[in-house]
Write a structure and sequence with these properties.
Helix content: over 70%
Number of domains: 1
Distance between the termini: 46 Å
Keywords: Membrane, Transmembrane, Transmembrane helix
Shape: elongated
Radius of gyration: 17 Å
Strand content: under 5%
C-alpha cells in the first residue's frame, strides 16, 4: 500500500513539474513579447470554445 501511494505522489509531482517546465519553455520560445502571444493563443482557444 505504501509503495502504491508513493508511486502516485511521485507521478503527480513529475507530471506537475513537466507542465511547469513546458510552460517555461514556451515562454522562453515566445521571446520578447510573451503577453501578446499568450493573448493570441487564449483568444484562439476562447473562440474555439465559443463555437
Amino acid at each position: 500500500i505504501l509503495t502504491t501511494t508513493l508511486d502516485k505522489y511521485s507521478l503527480t509531482i513529475y507530471f506537475i513539474g513537466g507542465i511547469f517546465i513546458s510552460l517555461s519553455g514556451i515562454l522562453i520560445l515566445l521571446g520578447k513579447n510573451p503577453n501578446l502571444h499568450l493573448c493570441q493563443i487564449l483568444r484562439k482557444y476562447t473562440v474555439e470554445d465559443d463555437i
